[in-house]
Amino acid sequence: MDASGLATIAITNAIKSTAQTPPFSRLSNLYLLQLLVNKLRAARNSNLVEYLRNKVHETSSVTETEAENTYQVLAYFTAAALAGLDPSTASLVQEMLDGVEYPKHGRKIAQSFRLLLAPSDIITKENACVVRPLRKGRLYQLAVVPLSRMWRTSENPTVKQNALTALSGILAFLEPTMLADNAGELIPVLLEGTNIQGDHFAKNACIKGILDLIPLASKTIAEHLVAVIERMTDRTRNTRQSPSDTNVRGRAMALEVLLKLTEIVDKSVLLKRKAGLMRELNYALEDSSSEVRSKAERCKMAWFNMMDGE
Question: What is the pLDDT of residues 244-268, one digit of tens each?
Fold first, then answer.
């Protein structure tokens, strides 16, 4: 049996997995599929790609579990194809983009975008896999551009949220320099992404993106300074009466953003926001996390030490 035949079996087994299927068995199927697609070029067989796409199109008539399994298979297959810049990548990414707008599974499909560029234990050069450096730029054009458009133009709040979630899963693994090259377009996306609810990975990825951009795109950051400060203090305000929607890591990174501003952005611009920010930092000084409190102390001292005329 050739690679595409084995891949077909792996797809079928992964989709048919149930709650009783051992997690190791299911993951083994997905990893085997990735090796067949990337290392043995199984996706070069157009029948295999069409088989998977047909499975995706059938998700409306299968069980909830099978539908979710199908989209997970699609993400793992696409990640392997993308790493090697397989010709099938564009059509596979488009299937994922279409899924972001689905009412029933859109959120989970959006979250699966984070698999596309995430470091892999399987798709590695040590396993004789192909990992093309240009895959990130390719995915930017295939997914970031249309997802950004989807977020800006959709009138459906759920679709807009899904688009942001999918974007965060890609942007989290792009080099800061690539973010900086597109800072004008991405900063509004990252700012809005800090408001994503119920997904700490997505929210934290957007905060990290802003943090990375401060030294590389300080002028653009300054243009959005009010929004940056407001979004970060929204994350760090964590009281018993009004808990933060961000976990400890996210609150700590939000304070890193506020601290980094004092190192990079023109002091005369920051001083206009000093008084209000100092009051907000008092909330972080009483945070339940010692890490957050420590970062809040450093941040408040840095802002306190800023003087007129600097």
Answer: 999 999 999 999 999 999 999 999 9
Which tokens hold the place of 27? 């993951």
Please state, in angstroms and rounded to a whole number, the distance separating the CA atoms of residues 82 and 41.
12
Which amino acid is located at 9 in the chain?
A: I
pTM > 0.90: yes or no: yes
Centroid of chain to Cα 221: 20
* Domain coordinates in residue numbering, the chain: 1-138, 215-310
Nearest to 80 by CA among 28, 45, 132: 132
- Alpha-carbon distances of 263 from 195, 211, 236, 260, rounded to whole Å: 25, 12, 20, 5
Mean pLDDT of 26-55: 95
| Those residues with Cβ within 8 angstroms of residue 293's Cβ, 6 or more apart along the chain or in another chain | 284, 285, 286, 287
